[in-house]
Amino acid sequence: MSENMICSGCDDCYPSDKIKEAVCINASRIYDSCSDKDCLEDLNVLLTKPGQCMVDKAANVRLNDVEVCNVSIGLQPVPFHKGFYSVDMTFYFDVSLDVFMAPNALPMPVKGLAVFSKRAVLFGSEGSVKVFSSECGDMQDGLNSPTRSCPKAVVQVAEPIPLSARLVEKRPMPPMPPCRIPEGIIRRYGGEFVSSEAEKQVLVSVGMFTIVQLERNVQMLIPAYDFCIPHKECVSSSEDPCELFSSIDFPTNEFFPSKLPTDQKYHCGCGKDEA
Fold it and tell me: What 3-state class would DSSP assign to 14?
């Protein structure tokens, strides 16, 4: 039976008689990928002046929701390791807080920003050609500008899981992150974030699932089989795992849409169903 089966790179096998034709396509081939499950503890929440004034007078805070509003991605070749690239990622979290001004008071909603950076090293193969096409960007004197033959980094993020929030006195070190916050994110909150005037800080813990891929455009003669799910984990720099978050399985269905069941009949609705 093994002679009539074709296996993909994801350790899945399919009957060879199911392939109808071979098609030549220009596709983004995934050369390497990894999945990761991060428990981000005690991320400092950056607040604008109105929000910081409320937090300074607050008795307690509660983490209501958290969302990834943007991800900055940097790609650099790894020295002395041909074909390998470091993917530097900076995640910007939109944090929704409930601020309690007194123990029995109703909560006041406050929005803030949390920032987290990480790095993954993946294989992206080598390429030394220049790519010219009608979609290469700006036209200069009727000529196409070439693009570099380098892999493309793709980061997929599932909805983060809000774990906890706590109110602490301001730490000696400034809470502002070392990276520059994009202007578009600052405008989203309606003003600059404050740090030196803060008397209290909000620290949140967040659970995050990610998939990182390195892709290249290649010409391939290939049939389509099924979703290719990474089987290895990214190297994590975290030394203090969260016990609660470690018990949650990776949400594969969040990244890959469901298919029509094989035992379900399909009809277009414009005629009678076949018996």
Answer: strand
Residue for token pair 């109808």 = 20
Q: At a CB cut-off of 8 Å and minimum separation 6, what does 205 contact? A: 39, 40, 41, 42, 43, 163, 164, 165, 242
Model-level pTM? 0.70
Which residues lie across from 90 on neighbouring strands?
72, 117
The long-range contacts involving 24-29, CB below 8 angstroms and separated by at least 24 positions, are 24/219, 24/220, 24/221, 25/219, 25/220, 25/222, 26/217, 26/218, 26/219, 26/220, 27/217, 27/218, 27/220, 27/222, 28/152, 28/215, 28/216, 28/217, 28/218, 29/215, 29/216, 29/217, 29/218, 29/220
Of 211, 114, 209, the C-alpha closest to 161 is 209
DSSP line for 27-88: EEEEEEEEEEEEEEEEEEPBEEHHHHHHHHT-SEEEEEEEEEEEEEEEEEEPTTSTTEEEEE
Q: Measuring CA to CA, which residue among 94, 97, 37 is closest to residue 64?
A: 97
pLDDT digits (tens, 9 = 90+) for 238-267: 555 677 777 778 888 888 777 666 555 545
